[in-house]
TrEMBL record:
Chain coiled-coil ranges: none
Keyword Nucleus among UniProt keywords: no
Name the UniProt record assigns to this protein: Glucose/arabinose dehydrogenase, beta-propeller fold
Pfam families named among the record's database cross-references: Cytochrome_CBB3, GSDH
Species, as recorded: Thermophagus xiamenensis
InterPro entries according to UniProt: 6-blade_b-propeller_TolB-like, Cyt_c-like_dom, Cyt_c-like_dom_sf, Glc/Sorbosone_DH, Quinoprot_gluc/sorb_DH_b-prop
Molecular function per GO: electron transfer activity; heme binding; metal ion binding
Ranges where the Cytochrome c domain occurs: 42-118
Alphabetical keyword list: Heme, Iron, Metal-binding
Length: 482
């Protein structure tokens, strides 16, 4: 961990960087929040540059966040409807409003750019380049072994004792693959609130699955005029889920389509840890009376452990293990130390890698190294007493998703390194640790696609799930000396 002096200096330096960024962007081609929709006094900025600076981090350079019918529907919108969305935003999908950032002329230009230039590029661009037969990295060479294709957004993977792979699709489907062959679509999957980032999310098998048969599914559950994150356990029989039990449901419900979390991880004592995002409402993260913006800990049947940190705090949700989180989408236990590591999305900048501690406050939105998507300042504080500092933070945001520690037996050169996906930059990140300090990052598989899931399979290989089009592949080490 960084010492306190290092944290203080780092925090002050980061504040200065954010202030300098805001100052520079107020007069540069990137723009600033002070430019209103009514003012065309300055020359309009390039639509392509505006899209790159403000839109691509979430939507991708070719709007590849949208796929199939969704993308076609997006491109079928009228010019006026696209302008309205850019200007006013969309609460349910989490699209921020840019009416106070872009002039009316710029709004028209960006809308036209999406509906013409981006649409044309999306129809012809090869999103996933062909990788060489052997991919060479700093310390290890490997080949790509494709396991599954024909998917959309493969959110998570888990393996049955016979080697079959279960894959969740965010749209709400659960598939089983045997080897490299599609075997079945699992029936009786819970209904999902498939809105924006919501849908069928993580999947985990109980550590004692061979004796009890429990499979755990995280999903966004519809309820009323909205929904929130839920967890169900069930057993698998004849490609159907049976004995279904909902063991957790987060509050508050909201129509927002962002920040559901949800990653799950079992510890050696069979406690289940999982994340719930703050659902697009930052104040949820500091409020102990709701589930959102937290990491939770429960027994495998949903009961609350008596030694959870807020069990005796009046009004607090007793399942809370840590709080002050924005949208954690990476969660894994270190194979040697047993510590729980987490990655979470910041806003524009400020993605975090954390070690999760019992009862700790991770600061969002009271402290952050990021800024709003429109360039405005969330807070000038990057550190406060009683709030944890990240092990590292990423600015610009990589949008980390999925997380696994490399098996030291299969990948001795990468042993216990962290592998995370980048949704924004479409690559895989290897994070090298020395103790609890980050030594370096290595970017791998550039333009692989939006990496949604990273898992270590029962064979010890790293499995990577990318989306739109959805493909799952694994990394097979190659000894080039043989």
């Amino acid at each position: 961990m960084f010492n306190k002096k290092h944290i203080t200096i780092t925090g002050l330096f980061s504040v200065l960087i954010i202030l300098l960024w805001a100052l520079l962007t107020s007069t540069s081609s990137i723009g600033c929040s002070g430019q209103t929709s009514g003012g065309d006094a300055q020359a309009p900025r390039s639509p392509g540059q505006l899209y790159t600076n403000y839109c691509a981090s979430c939507h991708g350079p070719y709007m590849e966040r949208f796929a199939g019918e969704d993308r076609n529907a997006l491109f079928a919108r009228s010019q006026s409807e696209m302008e309205r969305i850019i200007r006013d935003g969309d609460y349910e999908t989490g699209m921020p409003a840019f009416g106070n950032v872009f002039s009316q002329t710029e709004i028209e230009g960006v809308a036209r750019y999406i509906l013409t230039d981006i649409k044309k590029k999306a129809g012809s661009h090869d999103y996933r380049p062909g990788f060489p037969e052997v991919v060479k990295t700093e310390e290890l060479s490997f080949r790509i072994d494709t396991i599954a294709t024909g998917l959309g957004i493969p959110w998570a993977m888990a393996w049955l004792p016979n080697g079959d792979m279960l894959v969740t699709e965010r749209s709400g489907e659960l598939f089983r693959f045997r080897g490299k062959t599609f075997a079945a679509r699992i029936e009786e999957v819970p209904q999902v609130y498939a809105n924006g980032q919501g849908g069928l999310l993580d999947i985990e098998l109980h550590p004692d699955y061979e004796n009890n048969g429990w499979i755990y599914l995280a999903y966004s559950e519809p309820e009323g005029n909205g929904g929130n994150t839920a967890i169900m356990r069930a057993r698998l029989k004849d490609d159907q889920l049976v004995d279904r039990e909902k063991i957790f449901k987060a509050t508050p419900n909201t129509r927002s389509g962002v920040h559901f979390g949800c990653r799950m991880a079992f510890d050696k004592d069979h406690y289940l840890y999982f994340s719930v995002g703050e659902r697009g409402n930052p104040s949820n993260a500091q409020d102990l009376t709701n589930h959102s913006g937290k990491i939770h800990r429960i027994h495998d049947d949903g009961k609350i452990p008596e030694d959870n940190p807020f069990v005796d705090t009046p009004g607090a949700i007793p399942s809370i293990w840590s709080y002050g989180h924005r949208n954690p989408q990476g969660l894994a236990f270190h194979p040697v130390t047993g510590e729980l590591w987490e990655t979470e999305h910041g806003p524009k900048g400020g993605d975090e890698l954390n070690i999760i501690k019992k009862g700790a406050n991770y600061g969002w939105p009271e402290i952050t190294y990021g800024i709003n998507y429109d360039g405005t300042i969330i807070t000038r504080d990057t550190a406060k007493a009683g709030m944890e500092q990240p092990i590292i933070h990423w600015t610009p945001s990589i949008a980390p998703c999925g997380m696994a520690f490399a098996d030291s037996g299969v990948y001795p050169e990468w042993g216990n390194n962290i592998f995370s996906g980048s949704l924004s930059f479409r690559y895989l990140v290897r994070t090298v640790l020395k103790g609890n300090q980050v030594q370096k990052h290595e970017i791998m598989l550039r333009e692989a696609g939006r990496v949604r899931s990273v898992e270590t399979g029962p064979d010890g290989y790293l499995y990577i799930g990318v989306e739109n089009p959805g493909v799952i592949f694994r990394l097979i080490p190659v000894d080039e000396g043989k």
